[in-house]
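Below is our example:

___
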Amino acid sequence: MHVIIFASPHQAVGVRSNLKQMEPKRTNAKLTTHENYKCSQLFNVRLTNSKRHKHKSSNSERLIPGKRTEPQRNQRCRGFHNRPLELKTTSEDMTRSLGLLFLLSALCCCLADNVELLRSKRGTRFYRVRCVDSQTSAVRSFRETWLRWRGQRVEYCHCTLGGRERCHIVPVTNCYVSQCYNGGTCKEAVYSSDYICQCPAGFSGTRCEINTNEKCVVGQGKGYRGTWSISHTGAECINWNATSLRGKRFTAKKVDASSLGLGNHNFCRNPDNDNTPWCYVYKNNLIAWEFCSLPKCKEDKYQECVLASGQSYRGTKSVTKSGSHCLPWDAPILKRKLNNAWRSDALEQGLGSHSFCRNPDGDEGPWCHTYKNMQLTWELCDIPQCLKHPSVLSTLGPRAPTTNNNNRATCGRRLDNSLNRPSFRIFGGRQSDITDQPWQAAINVYQARSRQHFHRCGGVLINSCWVLSAAHCFEESDKAEKLEVILGRTFRKQNSSSEQIFKVSKYWSHENFDSESFDNDIALLKLETDIGICAVNSPEVFPACLPEPDLVLPSWTECEISGYGRDREFAAEYSERVKRGYVRLWPNERCVPDVLSGRTVTPNMLCAGDTRGLDDACKGDSGGPLVCRHNDIMTLMGVISWGDGCGQRDKPGVYTRVTNYINWIKEKMKANPV
């Protein structure tokens, strides 16, 4: 309902203040009751016309002039509008004044409602929008996307502003790296990074992390993953993903939520190592927390001791003999290890989203992964032997094969040799997969205007936390916090479960870099981490080997280049997919200015090119690798620097000679430890 009032606010205040005055102001001539009424009529008409004239909003509002009175009447009524309202007024005047006050109050309420409505339309209250999945009852927030099963097919769903789920069928493929616990089958959407798990019997949840058969807690219940959802007072637990829990310390949005058992459910958990599992509840219209009324499992006196080699141990010890704390078996850094929570027989081996000591490979005793001297390793746990053997031993599942792979330092190898892919060209040719060049990095820079990262250059992974690139890729105004390094991605813009993304804590361009000749065109980037290790070795992510300072390879040795650069010299955009090409090392006597349009060539540069003019680096490939096979490993001999055009016959590309900078690289790494 819209209300139009022709009196301005300051005049309305004047009326309210006049009503409070008890003493009427004297005038030169006292008016009769009838004249009072006539003057009030004249005053109201003038007030209405003047305000309409002052506040009219469109030509469609036609002004109706008030009836003029004779001059004598005007003279007689002069000063009437300056008089306060007298207590002895007519009933019409009093009714009109009270009506005006009522309408002003209604107008204020209407304006307040309109302000709140406008705030909602601007999006300040979007966080209240939520969707409830019609199949799983999972709570989803506005704009959240997810996958769900529809029979044997998979639907892609998203939560709309109206709180409704919108879904459609999408194609899926097997995940590069399984995201599912307890032997679940992982499927990944072809056109997005969303994944879905097909859980075995007895398990449910987004990642098959919920054990529907777990009915009691062991010890403090830190590893409890059952479905109990009632507190000790009988209150129902709040979903860990509920918007009402925003700002709480433990929610499904927490970075390590999956390791803590938190997710899109309302089951009791113990993420902070309390006395027993607990949950958030509503209490007197406020959010509180309460312990759950979970029963304790029957105590086993052999629970916290080891029988034989401890393969049946299912206790809760999580400290090694040296006192180091164990890593959770589902820590991201363990994804490529043989023994982790994503094994198909993880449940039988006692592995899951916890950090308890286990012996899945038949070692001397229970052990776990841990950090020692800033390196990922493993250690045996300090668990006492049982004094007496129980009459019944728990049934063991199939044992995993023993492995001696304890994070041995390796480089320059492709872990995935099963794929027999055809060769391709980095310039104007066919495409490839990141497993063919797992040391390839993409360096992006953040642009504030568009609020997103854009591809700047390539890079080479040479160590878990170190990446080499070209100095000309970075400007003086580029701050480290604006840079982003992506490893393990085949498609430049498309997310993948195999990718590893890092921020840059600091970077160094060579002190003697010449921006005109591109001499000393090399830069070193340190990836950001707070756990002592960054990139984890996998078929998609693996470092290239640095050469010895005195290594010299024969002329015309075939080498490889790779990157996300342009397919053609004047292409509008960078390649959508990583590409690789083959070039040969040119003799030093042929790497001269004469073949490069007169540009300077220094001893810190080397030349390599395809004599056919087919494969070559191009814009956007700068900073990427030139790797050559030496002693059966791929060795980084050059960093892509510059060239005279792209793919021109008899014109090589120019690369930074890495052997000249081995000492510089090692000094930087030693002076800035991870």
